[in-house]
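Course assignment 3, question 2. Fill in each field.
Student: A.L.
Task: Predict the tertiary structure for the chain below.
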Amino acid sequence: MFERYVRRQASRHFSGVHWAGGGASERWDRSIPTLFIANHTNWWDGFIACLVSRGLGLGFQVLMEAQHLARYRVFLRVGALPLRRGRPREAYADLTAAAAYLRPGTGLWIFPQGERRPPREPLARCERGAAHLALGHGAPLRICPVAFRYIHLGEQLPEAFALVGEEWLLRPGAVSGRAALMEAFAGRLAGTIGELDALVASENVAPFRPLAAGRLSVNKRLDRFRHLVGLLRGPFEARNG
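Answer field:
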């Protein structure tokens, strides 16, 4: 029901929700849990993360700041997990509880920036919760960076883009120390963000495929009607040129 709700909201507020990458997911061993590490710039991030998880055939869990989750407790029913960031001991307890969701067939999402940041602000000061989860897992864990962007590209409504970066199968003992591991995570996420920024800056939407349907711009709705009644010939193009 929540997924249907997200798709309805996306269809109202976006010209389209698109994603790229994740092609290797067809070969993923679903017995290995996945930890998604994503940038956080927009209210929509958690909702689009849910659609990405579903698109990859995974269950959805996401760490959400506890003070916000306390105001919207309904999200506890759809995959949100509380994270108290104010005190190290409380954060440690919440991360320990969240670690139980690193299980087969499930994707656990974490936003290492800790809070929403401006889209063009460089990725910096990443918190080490993701590294703590990975090091404490004690078994192979798939790490997957994901970048989100929301931008107008010639359409009436904005478009949402998600780029699933190259996954990394982390084995126990491969990296020692939270600082070094978090630096590696941040580097991979920054690279994925840079790749997505290059694509949208050049308006190169060819690599993307639909993740959720959106609304056509007014002129395109008129064009579709004209095609239906025979006033326009040739194939109907959904995007503006």
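Instructor remarks: The CA atoms of residues 150 and 160 lie 5 Å apart. DSSP finds seven helices and nine strands in the chain.
Grade: pending
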